[in-house]
Design goal:
alpha+beta, five-stranded antiparallel beta sheet, 5 strands, 32% helix, 18% strand, globular, binds guanosine-5'-monophosphate, binds zinc ion
């Protein structure tokens, strides 16, 4: 399904132009207009899914292999030494376009640090409590 008001539906299906680096029947991969680094790309499914929780399994299974393919090409063609795969779900997580997408961000030697966080501290009791709450939820879904 497409969403007629969704900019990424329009880009993924070729109604709005974008710098396309790859296309197949399920996806279009474009360059991000506000790149975090040179070559920053976005994997867009052609169907509309709000985020990862809405993505169908058949499409989801293709995203990581495609990310690997794009990342390998970036290393060869752009000379980056690595890449991050980032995928935001929900406003609190930084999602600004509510059509599932995965960022492929090339990382260059001596480039700026990004996609990082300050490691916190967790007491063993807290980890036990969190894991039991999550486990219970996951088991209730089966
Ligand atoms: P999010 O914050 O939702 O994970 O990422 C949205 C990304 O889409 C941002 O990095 C932003 O720069 C990019 N973006 C937003 N609108 C457009 C657009 O119209 N064209 C392209 N190529 N990228 C866009
Ligand atoms: Zn969409």
């Amino acid at each position: 399904m497409k969403d007629k008001d969704c900019i990424f539906c329009k880009i993924a299906n070729g109604e709005i132009p974008a710098s396309t680096v790859y296309e197949d029947e399920d996806f279009r991969v474009i360059l991000d207009l506000g790149p975090a680094s040179r070559g920053h790309a976005l994997i867009l499914p052609k169907e509309h899914y709000q985020d990862l929780c809405h993505l169908d399994e058949r499409t989801a299974a293709k995203v990581l292999p495609l990310a690997g393919k794009i990342g390998s090409a970036m290393k060869k063609a752009l000379g980056c030494s690595g890449f991050n795969v980032v995928q935001n779900n929900g406003e609190a997580a930084g999602q600004t376009v509510f059509h599932f997408h995965a960022h492929i961000i090339p990382r260059y030697e001596n480039g700026p640090s990004m996609v990082t966080w300050e490691p916190g501290k967790a007491e063993p009791e807290e980890l036990t409590e969190i894991s039991s709450v999550l486990k219970r939820e996951l088991e209730s879904e089966n």
